[in-house]
Write a structure and sequence with these properties.
- By secondary structure, the protein is mainly alpha-helical.
- Helices cover 73% and strands 6% of the residues.
- The chain is built from five helices and two strands, in the order αβαααβα.
- Strands 1-2 form a two-stranded parallel sheet.
- The N terminus is likely disordered.
Length: 175
């Protein structure tokens, strides 16, 4: 999918270069070429569907985040005990607390890593679903309104509001 985006971007840039050099005319004798644009990042960040997905993911991972925070707090609490009473604490007790911190730290790092991996997987899956949904809407619009070219890109210096379909797709995704 990423290479397709680059191909489309490259095709769009090549067309713009051809236009600027006079090699390609948008207005032909037979018909005009109809071009549209979609800002993917805005679509996946601002659409009601994207915001709903973000809230759902946040809610789904809230307990695991709390567990990770609880473990971090426990480590900090033990470390605080060691810092406060370390000089007067018997060596055996000090070693037990040090081993407890080491074990908790390993578990904390594992939990944190697994949480991040699961969160990334889920987020990517949901973003793919949103992108698929947006692309279906975009294809429907393109076919119904007879667009010749629709470019999708994340960062653009300027796009005329006349050809920007992003807000329209965001609106339709919210319906």
């Amino acid at each position: 999918m990423q290479s397709l985006k680059h191909l489309i971007s490259a095709a769009g840039l090549a067309m713009l270069a051809a236009l600027s050099s006079g090699c390609l005319s948008l207005a032909t004798a037979q018909s005009d070429i109809k071009i549209g644009f979609v800002h993917n990042e805005k679509l996946l960040r601002e659409s009601p569907a994207a915001l709903k997905v973000a809230r759902k993911i946040d809610a789904d991972f809230q307990k695991r985040r709390a567990d990770v925070k609880g473990m971090s707090d426990r480590i900090a609490e033990i470390q605080k005990q060691i810092d406060k009473n370390g000089l007067t604490m018997p060596d055996a007790e000090r070693r037990v607390k040090d081993r407890e911190i080491a074990a908790l730290s390993r578990d904390f790092q594992r939990m944190q890593r697994e949480l991040q991996e699961d969160l990334d997987l889920r987020t990517n899956e949901e973003l793919r679903n949103l992108a698929d949904r947006a692309n279906k809407i975009l294809r429907r619009i393109a076919e119904a309104e007879k667009f010749d070219l629709i470019v999708q890109q994340e960062a653009v210096v300027y796009i005329s509001p006349r050809i920007d379909l992003t807000d329209r797709i965001i609106k339709e995704m919210g319906e």
